[in-house]
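hiii so my PI (J.) wants the whole complex modelled not just the main chain, which honestly fair. so below is everything: two entries, each one labled with what it is. i double checked the lines twice but i was tired so who knows lol
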Amino acid sequence: MIDSFQNIAVTSFPEIPKIDFKPIENKYLKVILINTFLVFVIVCLVVFFADYKGLFEFIENTIWIYVSIVLGFIFILLVKKIGFKKRKYAVRQKDISYKKGVLFRSLTTVPFNRIQHVEIDEGPISRLFDLVSLSVFTAGDSSDDLKVSGLLKEEAKQIKEFISNKIDG
Amino acid sequence: MGNTANFSQFRRQSKKGIFVIYLNILYKAFKAFWIFLFIFIQKFSQFSESTLFYIYLGVTALFIFFLIRAYLIFKNFQFKIENQHFILKKGIIKKTNTSISFDRIQNINFKQNLIQQIINVHEVNIETAGSSKAEISIKALSFKKASALKQAITIFDKSATEQAIGEVEKPLLKVGFLELIKVSLTENHLQSLLLLVAVLVGFFQQISDLFNGLGKRDILDNYISKNTSSLENSLILIVGVLFFFTIIAILSSVVRVVLKHFNLTVFVKNNALEIYQGLITKNSVILKKDKVQYITISDNPIKKKLGISFITFKQAISGKVKKKQNKIIKIVGCKNAQILAIKTLLFPDENLQKFDKNFSDSYFRNRLYLRGFLLLSILNSGLYFAFGVSHVFWVNLLLIPAFIISIELSFRKQYYLFNDEFLLIGQGTIETHKTYVPFFKVQHVKLKQTFFQARKNIADIVFQTASGKIKIPCISIEKAHKIYNYTLFKVETSQKSWM
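here's the output for the full assembly
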């Protein structure tokens, strides 16, 4: 059975550092920015409301709260902007991989023969840009399985089809 | 097998089941409403005769209602075996129809609590890897029917099952009472104490709710504050309390272990382990070899001296049922020879001894120190705010050495080694855990690096199995990549099913 194994032709081992990872769609950066901005607006509204109700009386100058929120927001935006380039995925003959992260890097690989099911999700904002996210689930605690966001709908469908064929075949 | 024919038609459980279900309902009702009972007894004299009459009438009606309910549950609970599936119909008003394919069944367990022991019926639990909803519990079956059912379900599982009923086999392991006491005395007493405290806190909350309701909150508060203020003053009392807690902790672990593992007997039967144990509630579990995802062998210094250790078996769990304790099967009090026997049964020709241990990078130690330091600072500031006196910082004289020792131990005990098929990960502080994972049981692999780890070229590698994560912290990136690739290679070429 080892003879029939063909992933990439370099060696008999599937070598992760050598495969070509594909970046996700550039449009997805806009989705991330819009989402972050929405969270920012909500946080600001909550803080403003609390301030209005006088919940921060023990702090002398409430302006510092807003300054720190804005600074935090800028920091998060920067991290997301840099981190966006690090979001890459790769589909091979027998597995799918995804890597991401600047401060906390991670690389996950799920072999097709362990996948229980595949899901395609469309977020409300992603839908405006015709983007979807593809999640695969394995057995056990699946909360930490692989999810690739920011794929074109057509491409995600193709990958899903590909994986489904592999699982059944 | 003539027995299988019996299950081709829908059938009910043993008639004694009504009684078991009835008591079960009563027990649940009592657990929910015992506070009312308490109040009732306390205020008994204040009720007028006519109110008492209505209360009795109501309670009697409730009892009769429960009896009818139990009967209906019994009447509507039907099961059969068809086409390699176990089929169950149940429900009084909302009818449910469950069908479980045999190869999805992980375990068939027998259980007997006190009442079931008295009226001589067995509870049969059918466990699957799916959600908890798919779990089936048949409350009362006679032993003959229960074993026939078990046989009928397991018979299709393996082709070569030659199981002679009634044949007395020599058990692989039998733990006597004295042995069990030894085991329980060397348990992790701190853990038992925490468990006990958790139970007591829940109990205390109920009590304080009760006092609250009766307007006697002050009494309780006074009592507690009086006790705590004297506690702060007297050192002797603190020592006394510590001593008391130690005794309680040891006692509670003894009681816990004896109740759960009394008369522990393990048999090996056609590729499965059969485990019998329990004092008040008797349990029997059949552990199929293929369903075990990984095992952990643990001991601590005292246990090592006595030559005993315990094995934990991990089976597949579903994502929703988190940390379901009863799916973790433990065999305590194993001697070396028995561990070897179990290991060879589950993982034949594993031969890991001749390989060298690989240790984590010293970054791992630094990380542990950093985390320890953070924890200490939080603890210190918490203590300071709680008591408001700087004397509490003397605690650090005890805490800091304890932290340093446990960090050094954790670092030294963290290692991994592997051969073609298996990965062995060692870890622990005072206890030592050795986890054996076959590579093909891995579901997916993950490589993790923080920014700082990336600068030092080291990474954590996390293996996700169907029963949880296993982590090797802080190894060099080249090694991590090698293991990563090898695991993928193993998983992707493996023809064996992981469950």
